[in-house]
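Protocol step 4 of 6: record predicted structures for both targets in the notebook before any analysis. Target 1:
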Amino acid sequence: DYLDKIKQKLGSMQSEVIVAIENVKD
């Protein structure tokens, strides 16, 4: 449903941010 879609979107955004932070550390 609608909330699940939002949660999935937030989850993928969060993982992208984590990857970006890891890249900055290097």
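Target 2:
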Amino acid sequence: MSKRSGKHAWPAVLIAAINIADGFLVTNMMLGMFRK
């Protein structure tokens, strides 16, 4: 792997991590609403 490809992969990894975190937050909120 070249250094350039590694640098280009970082934004995608960060976006994926943010999307996963948002998904967990949404599911937690939905579960909290259903439990109430």
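Step 5 preliminary note on target 2. The mean pLDDT is 85. The two ends are 50 Å apart (CA to CA).
Proceed to step 6 after PI sign-off.
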